[in-house]
Design a protein that fits this description.
8-stranded parallel β-barrel; 15 helices; 460 residues; binds 6-O-phosphono-beta-D-glucopyranose; 40% helix; alpha/beta; TIM Barrel; single chain; GH
Length: 460
C-alpha cells in the first residue's frame, strides 16, 4: 500500500469530548448542578427534542468499554474534560468524582492512550454562576483553586493540560447572542467575562508552573475562524481585520503573546467597554504564556464591509463592524449548514508559525456534524464516507503545513462518539461511534475503521 500522506512518527491520533456532553449521571454521586442542568430545568423547550444534560452518552458508567474502543481504533491520545461541578461541588473535593477521574486516567494510560485533560468546557457550576460566574473576580479565584486541586491530584500522570475550551463561546452565547446561560445581552458584561476568563487562565498557568516541573505542558483550546475578506478593497479588508480581532485575536494574543492587540483595546475603549482590571494583571498575562495551543477548526468566516452604517445609538455588537457573506461556489456541509473550507486549517497553522512564534499546536477539534445520520445506515453500519472525505481533506492540509515546518503535533476529531451538544442536544451527530439513545449501545461508523488504518500507518 502506498502512503501518500505520511505523518511524523509521534503524531497524536485521537478524538475529543467534554464532561457534560458525554458523562450523563448528572445527579449521581454528589455531582452538583451546573448552568446547563439549571437552564434545562427552567426551559427544556430551548433544547433540541427537549433532551437535556441528564441524558448524555453514559461515559460515567461505560468509560472502560469506551476506552477499549478508543484503543481498537488506534487512538494514542484522547481529550476529556473534568466537570467542575462533579469534582468540586461547593468548593470541596467530591471523593467519588476524584475516584472516577482517577480511574479514567489510569485506564487510558493502561491502554497507552495519553489523556489530554481540559478544565473548563462551558460548564460553570450553578452556585458559582449565581455568585456572578465569570463576571466575578472571586469566581476567578475559585477556578484557580479548582485548577490547582486538579494539578495536585492528577498531575503525576497527566502531562497535557488545558485551561479552557473555546472561552469565547460562553461570552458570545451567554452575553451577546442568547445561546448559553445566563442569556443576557450586555456588551459591557461580555468584555468583563472575556477578560476574567483570560485572568483565570493565566492564574491557572501560573499555579501549574509551581506544581508541575516534570516536563508537562499547559495550554488553551481556541476555536479559530480564519477571516477572509470578500475583496481587497480597504473597507472589506478592515471589516475582516476587525472580525479577526474580535473572534480570534481577543484570546489568541493574550494566551500566546501575553498581551491584547492594541487595536482591540482602542475599539473597546471607543465604546466604553474596557473591563475592570487589577494592578499586576498585565504582568500576569505577560509572564504566563501557554506552552501549547489546541486549535478547533470547523469553518471559515467570510466578511465584507457593512452595507449600511450602523445606528450610532444602537448598543454595541461586534458585527456592527462587518457583514457576513456567502462566498459564491462555496462547499457546504449541507447536513449542518456550515461551509467546508479545508485550506482554512493550513492558513491557521501558517499564521501560528509566522506570527505566534510557531507555538506547538495540535488540531483539538475538527469534524462534521450530520443531522438524521441514521439515514446512512447500511448493513448495520453508518456509511459516513462524507466524514472520511472531510477528515482526509483537512489532514492533507495539516500534512502540507508540517512540510512547511509548522509545529503541529496531532489531530483530534470532534468527537469520539455522538454526544449531547448544548442547545443542539443530539441534533448533529459527530462521532466515530454512533450512540443509540435508548440502549446507549455504541456502533462504529465506517470512519472508525478508516481512522484505525490511518493511525496504524501514520498516514493514508
Ligand atoms: C464545538 C464545541 O465548537 O462544537 C463542542 O467545542 C460542540 O462542545 C461542537 O459540541 C459541535 O457543535 P454543534 O452545535 O454542531 O453540535
Amino acid at each position: 500500500m502506498t502512503i501518500n500522506f505520511q505523518f511524523p512518527e509521534d503524531f497524536w491520533w485521537g478524538s475529543a469530548t467534554s464532561a457534560t456532553q458525554i458523562e450523563g449521571a448528572a445527579k449521581e454521586d454528589g455531582k452538583a448542578k451546573n448552568i446547563w442542568d439549571h437552564w434545562y430545568e427552567k426551559e427544556p423547550n430551548r433544547f433540541f427534542d427537549e433532551i437535556g444534560p441528564d441524558t448524555t452518552s453514559n461515559f460515567y458508567h461505560t468509560y472502560k468499554e469506551d476506552i477499549k474502543l478508543m484503543k481498537e481504533i488506534g487512538h494514542n491520545t484522547f481529550r476529556l474534560s473534568i466537570s467542575w461541578s462533579r469534582f468540586m461541588p461547593y468548593g470541596e473535593v467530591n471523593q467519588k468524582a476524584a475516584d472516577f477521574y482517577n480511574h479514567v486516567i489510569d485506564e487510558l494510560i493502561a491502554q497507552d492512550i495519553e489523556p489530554f485533560v481540559n478544565l473548563f468546557h462551558f460548564d460553570m457550576p450553578f452556585d458559582l454562576q449565581q455568585q456572578g460566574g465569570w463576571e466575578s473576580r472571586e469566581v476567578v479565584e475559585k477556578y484557580v483553586d479548582y485548577a490547582k486541586t486538579c494539578f495536585q491530584l492528577f498531575g503525576d500522570r497527566v502531562t497535557k493540560w488545558f485551561t479552557f475550551n473555546e472561552p469565547i463561546v460562553p461570552v458570545e452565547g451567554g452575553y451577546l447572542y442568547d445561546f448559553h446561560y445566563p442569556n443576557i445581552v450586555d456588551a459591557k458584561k461580555a468584555t468583563q467575562v472575556a477578560y476574567h476568563t483570560m485572568i483565570a487562565h493565566a492564574k491557572a498557568v501560573e499555579a501549574f508552573r509551581t506544581y508541575n516541573d516534570n516536563g508537562s505542558k499547559i495550554g488553551i483550546i481556541l476555536n479559530l475562524t480564519p477571516s477572509y475578506p470578500r475583496s481587497n478593497n480597504p473597507a472589506d479588508l478592515r471589516a475582516s481585520r476587525i472580525a479577526d480581532l474580535f473572534f480570534n485575536r481577543s484570546f489568541l494574543d493574550p494566551a500566546v503573546l501575553g498581551e491584547y492587540p492594541s487595536e482591540l483595546i482602542e475599539i473597546l475603549n471607543e465604546h466604553g467597554l474596557l473591563p475592570n482590571t487589577e494592578v499586576g494583571d498585565k504582568e500576569l498575562l505577560r509572564e504566563n504564556k501557554v506552552d501549547i495551543l489546541g486549535v478547533n477548526y470547523y469553518q471559515p468566516r467570510r466578511v465584507k464591509a457593512k452595507e449600511y452604517l450602523p445606528n450610532p445609538y444602537a448598543p454595541f455588537m461586534p458585527d456592527m463592524y462587518f457583514d457576513s457573506y456567502e462566498m459564491p461556489g462555496r462547499k457546504m456541509n449541507k447536513y449542518r449548514g456550515w461551509e467546508i473550507y479545508e485550506k482554512g486549517i493550513y492558513d491557521i497553522l501558517k499564521n501560528l508559525k509566522d506570527n505566534y512564534g510557531n507555538i506547538e499546536s495540535f488540531i483539538s477539534e475538527n469534524g462534521m456534524g450530520v443531522q438524521n445520520e441514521e439515514r446512512f445506515l447500511r448493513n448495520r453500519e453508518i456509511q459516513d464516507d462524507y466524514r472520511i472525505e472531510f477528515i482526509k481533506e483537512h489532514l492533507k492540509w495539516v500534512h502540507q503545513a508540517i512540510q512547511e515546518n509548522c509545529n503541529v503535533k496531532g489531530y483530534h476529531l470532534w468527537a469520539f462518539m455522538d454526544n449531547w451538544s448544548w442547545m443542539n442536544a443530539y441534533k448533529n451527530r459527530y462521532g466515530f461511534f454512533a450512540v443509540d439513545l435508548k440502549t446507549m449501545k455504541r456502533t462504529p461508523k465506517k470512519s472508525a475503521h478508516w481512522i484505525k488504518h490511518v493511525a496504524e500507518n501514520n498516514g493514508f
